[in-house]
TrEMBL record:
<dbReference type="InterPro" id="IPR050313">
    <property type="entry name" value="Carb_Metab_HTH_regulators"/>
</dbReference>
<dbReference type="InterPro" id="IPR036388">
    <property type="entry name" value="WH-like_DNA-bd_sf"/>
</dbReference>
<protein>
    <submittedName>
        <fullName>ArsR family transcriptional regulator</fullName>
    </submittedName>
</protein>
<dbReference type="InterPro" id="IPR036390">
    <property type="entry name" value="WH_DNA-bd_sf"/>
</dbReference>
<feature type="compositionally biased region" description="Low complexity">
    <location>
        <begin position="1"/>
        <end position="18"/>
    </location>
</feature>
<dbReference type="InterPro" id="IPR011991">
    <property type="entry name" value="ArsR-like_HTH"/>
</dbReference>
<feature type="region of interest" description="Disordered">
    <location>
        <begin position="231"/>
        <end position="257"/>
    </location>
</feature>
<feature type="region of interest" description="Disordered">
    <location>
        <begin position="1"/>
        <end position="24"/>
    </location>
</feature>
<dbReference type="Pfam" id="PF13412">
    <property type="entry name" value="HTH_24"/>
</dbReference>
Amino acid sequence: MPAPGSGVPSGGPLPVGAESDERTRDRVRGAVLEHGPVSAAQLGSLLGFTPAAVRRHLDQLEKSGVIEVKLVRGSGKGAGRPARRYVLSSHGQSDLGNDYLQIARTALAQLVELKGDQAIQEFAEQRFARMEQRYQPLLAEAGEDVVRRAEILSRALSADGYVSSANELPAAGALQAVQLCQGHCPVLELAAEFPQFCEAETEVFSRLLGVDVRRLSTLASGSHVCTTHIPTGRLPQEAESARTASFAPTDLQKGSN
């Protein structure tokens, strides 16, 4: 019970200053989610805050376990000190709208007990099949342009709350690629327990993009972002299969060797 005259309310809305701070911290957390790993200086520039102001909110978010610091070494020569970069923690990820997490975890555990691990695989495939069905018409507009398809996929994922980005990597020829990053996973803690979710999502990305993609990192395994490597210097899957088939020796050719 607050002491009389302390200015601390026993109930009701927060004081104006406290409410403003809460909204500001939400903005900082959102910026870390979208741009992390990001420095305090970059956040200040993005949000228009003074260095002192942004550090105050970062310190509060770090103390509450919402964000954490990653030490990143520069790419240049020399033995400089690692730079501090902020990313959303697993706790911060799980706080983003996972109100029914415990219910879902219990239901999936019971599903495994009743029908085994294969039931989780089928459940995950069905979940991402719905995503594939919604995204397919959007990506179809890009034809066989894998880069364009990756950009459309990234925008669709962001619209669904995955905080996604797609960036072309500096390379030439067959090494050309796009890196697809997702800063948020709505089923993060479930995916950490049941990797079938990540596997099913990766397979859907491969079918949507028409190339074999590779997962480099996942939030579920402890990384600060899910990263998918998308080769763009290769032919799409269907064309590649046809090309491989055209070079396969026929029975007649085999017999003549």
